[in-house]
């Protein structure tokens, strides 16, 4: 259906197969977390679930170790586009957002999330609480890593930002995008992953 149906058929039938609200939330959370190691850019790290109650496909995130701009250039990824958080084209996403009313639903969802679950003050407060609660464990882990002479520093995946810096920079980028002052960073497509 995604590849072959004409626009009228796609728009008429897609919501009987796909939980579109779930898909929009999945996309929004992936974009908010600046996770380019995902379904949208690389084409992996997700599960499909056929909900037995609705008989619709739902997307579930998986393997988020590269979220928070922790895959590639952190500075660019912290400015990841909310509307185009993938390189090249992504046929399912583009066809959905082109359907009447769907882009508006996505924008409304983004504004809701930016003011609730992904609000800067809330995230910074929760991060401070987690850092306080885990301070002893993190210090013990750092001491053990030094004793093992573990090598740290940049890796193939790049250097992840500090979480507080991520929250500050990412929420500022999101605000600018929601206000129409920025389109955000659109990554280049890797040599693998979605091509359509």
Task: Write out key terms for the chains shown.
mainly alpha, disordered C terminus, 2 strands, 196 residues
List the helices and strands and how they pair.
Blueprint lengths: L6 H11 L2 H13 L13 E6 L4 E6 L12 H4 L13 H8 L3 H14 L4 H14 L1 H13 L15 H16 L18
Antiparallel strand pairs: 1-2
Helix pairs in contact: 2-5, 5-8, 6-8
Structure description:
With 196 residues, the protein is mainly alpha-helical. The protein has one domain (7-178). It has helices at 7-17, 20-32, 74-77, 91-98, 102-115, 120-133, 135-147, 163-178, and strands at 46-51, 56-61. It has a two-stranded antiparallel sheet. A hairpin with a 4-residue loop joins β1 and β2. The longest helix has 16 residues, at 163-178. The two termini are 13 Å apart.
- Mean pLDDT, to the nearest integer, reads 92
Total number of beta strands: 2
Oligomer: single chain
- Percentage of residues in DSSP E strands: 5-15%
Distance from N terminus to C terminus (CA atoms, Å) equals 13 Å
Short description:
The chain is mainly alpha-helical and 196 residues long.
